[in-house]
Amino acid sequence: MKLEGIKVLDLSLFLPGPHFTMMMADHGAEVIKLEPPTGEPVREVGLKQGGESVWFRNTHRGKKSISLNLKHADGKAAFLKLAATVDVIVEAFRPGVVERLGIDYAAIKAINPGIVYCSVSAYGQTGDKRLNPAHDLSIQADSGLVSVNLGADGVPAMPAMPTADMAGSLMAFSGVLMALLRKQTTGLGDFLDISMQDSLVAWTPNVMGPIFAQDKAAETKEERSWGGNGFYNIYQTQDGEYLTLGGSEIKFVHNLLSALGRPELTELAKQGPGAHQEPMRVFLKEQFASKTLQQWHEFLADIDVCWAPVRDLHAAMNEQHLQQREMILTDEAGNKSLGVPIKFAEEPAKPNLSTPSFSADSEQVLLDLGYSSAEIAQFKQDKAIF
After folding, report:
1. What is the pLDDT of residues 186-245, one digit of tens each?
2. What gap in Å lies between CA 248 and CA 233, rounded to an integer?
3. Residue 316 above 80 pLDDT?
4. In whole angstroms, what is the distance from residue 380 CA to residue 372 CA?
5. pLDDT band, residue 350 (cuts 50/70/90)
6. Residue 338, pLDDT score
7. In terms of DSSP H, where are the helices of the chain?
8. Are 157 and 231 in contact (CB under 8 A)?
9. pTM
10. What domains sit in the chain, N to C, each tagged with a CATH number?
11. More confident residue, 213 or 152
12. Which of 55, 184, 279, 306 is surrounded by the most beta carbons within 10 Å?
């Protein structure tokens, strides 16, 4: 696998850090998760299957678990000894915490010059907001994304996806891999300052038109991505179901409008998104409300147009195509996990669907570092490890 031989020490919690280090584990990296004394919080968040939370299983498979007391001299010494042997460290504390603990980049670089040290935080390590606590919703709100996530009543709605978390995860993953690639040439590591807000904002080039070109806020429901384009929109069907049109290229517009007997409306689409498209949007709304979703399945089957039914998550996860793509994995006990999205022809991922119990690997990791069984027993007694 692509990341065999890479050793990762993961101190992060919740979603961004654990998700990307799990992807590293899927592709062969050895990932050691350092859990706090109370354990990774998501062990107890949400529904459980097979005795563990679905969230934990889908962010921690294939990892090892240790728990060192970083406020105890022996626990910290063991951490530093381990840190000297790894290629990557990931942490997601509030800025300043790792410095106070004496495990920041400068401290680790002094004993491991090749370390790739990745800090994931809400607002980054610099700037006025660096110390502000925040999770995904707050970052989306503060970055302008909640303001454009409007319901039919025009009121901001709860975002459906943790995009700040996941953008941070993928930016961190990409940055770590770039640093590891460069290390092959220089022998040196690097420090990555990954901000969830930076990562989220970087995902908005397709909607920056009014903000950059006109220096004003977007008129949300007239913008292409948020309802201003009839062929990039959601429509209700006669039976109360919904479908989407998801491609505004003129060829798709012409194909569907011709099939519906109104090809002249294509001229409205050629003018781009906005209020002038209202006659076309009204026509499409009325048309889709005239038949059931199944009838539209049959009608649209032979028309070259971007469309899809609105499925609930349960139906989507049971859809045949995702099964064919191996995006739903099932272990021997019948517990389900999400699959691996990065598919190599050579050296494909081999996800290990087992997850570690809390601190299950602490003793073995310490033995591998050269500690004796007697020393480890003393550490346990002194609460240097949990």
Report:
1. 999 999 999 999 999 999 999 999 999 999 998 888 888 888 899 999 999 999 999 999
2. 10
3. yes
4. 13
5. very high
6. 97
7. 16-26, 54-60, 73-83, 97-101, 105-111, 136-142, 163-186, 196-201, 250-259, 266-270, 278-288, 293-300, 313-317, 320-324, 362-368, 373-382
8. no
9. 0.93
10. 7-202+324-382 (3.40.50.10540), 232-305 (3.30.1540.10)
11. 213
12. 55
> Using an 8 Å Cβ cutoff, are 311 and 319 in contact?
yes
Q: Report whether pLDDT(180) > 90.
A: yes
Token pair 């499925």: residue: 311
Euclidean distance between CA atoms 196 and 140, whole angstroms: 9
Farthest CA pair distance, the chain: 84
DSSP-derived 3-state class of residue 209: helix
What's the CA angle centered on 178, arms 177 and 180, to 5 degrees?
65
Backbone angles phi, psi at 362, to 5 degrees: -55, -50
- Using DSSP, state whether 79 is helix, strand or coil: helix
Provide the phi-psi class of 48: left if phi over 0, else alpha when psi is between -120 and 50, else beta: beta
**Measuring CA to CA, which residue among 228, 234, 208 is closest to residue 271?**
228
Q: How far apart are CA 365 and CA 377, in angstroms?
A: 14
